[in-house]
């Protein structure tokens, strides 16, 4: 996986004739999202279960999809997440179809809810999510801020 991400960066560097800082790569469960790009953290996350079940599709499409988000952020700053800049990089740098949804089988993927603090993201179980709806509060151990619902969703299930 690291190789696939770094290979995308090599392609991008040849295309744009400049260097890009390599991102951190994580494998955390992320609801039904196949991948997520964290722009400020320069991090890409891939769903470990969906990855294991769909390795080819991840390498050929999910990896370039998320890398393109980080490239757009570096090159253009805050623009539409799946806008023309992103589509253009998917087409011209990676020769990929710019899909924004996936068709992976998500039956094995437990339902989780995306939450954020000031420093990280969390996939909470239904039980914890329901506790929060009933008034419970969870704090991040690192930054001590309360977890709040997040609508980060990229390459989600259709
Ligand atoms: Zn935190
Ligand atoms: Zn996306």
Short recap of the structure:
With 158 residues, this protein is α/β, with parallel strands linked by helices. It folds into two domains: 2-100, Zincin-like (2-Layer Sandwich); 112-157, no CATH class. 38% of the residues lie in helices and 17% in strands.
Rg, Cα atoms, Å: 16 Å
Unreliable spans are none
The number of strands is 8
- Indicate the structural class: alpha/beta
Largest sheet: 3 strands, mixed
Ligands present = zinc ion
CATH homologous superfamily identity of the largest domain: Metalloproteases ("zincins"), catalytic domain
Strand order of the largest sheet: 1-3-2
Shape category: globular
Number of helices: 5
Helix content: 25-40%
Q: Secondary-structure element order, as H and E? A: HEEEHHHEEEHEE
CATH class of the largest domain: Alpha Beta
Averaging pLDDT over every residue, what do you get?
Answer: 90
Q: For the record, give the distance between the C-alpha atoms at the N and C termini, rounded to a whole number.
A: 24 Å
CATH architecture of the largest domain: 2-Layer Sandwich
Structural domain count: 2
The portion of residues forming beta strands comes to: 15-25%
Q: From the 3D structure, determine the CATH topology of the largest domain.
A: Zincin-like
Description:
- The protein has helices spanning 2-16, 48-53, 55-76, 84-92, 126-133; strands spanning 24-26, 35-38, 43-46, 101-102, 112-116, 121-125, 148-149, 156-157.
- Helix 1 (2-16) crosses helix 3 (55-76).
- By secondary structure, it is an alpha/beta fold.
- It is globular, with a radius of gyration of 16 Å.
- It folds into 2 domains: 2-100, Metalloproteases ("zincins"), catalytic domain (Zincin-like); 112-157, no CATH class.
- The longest helix has 22 residues, at 55-76.
- The strands form 3 sheets. The chain has a 3-stranded mixed sheet with strand order 1-3-2. The protein has a 3-stranded antiparallel sheet with strand order 6-5-7. A two-stranded parallel ribbon has the order 4-8.
- One zinc ion is lined by residues 117-120, 140, 142-143, 145.
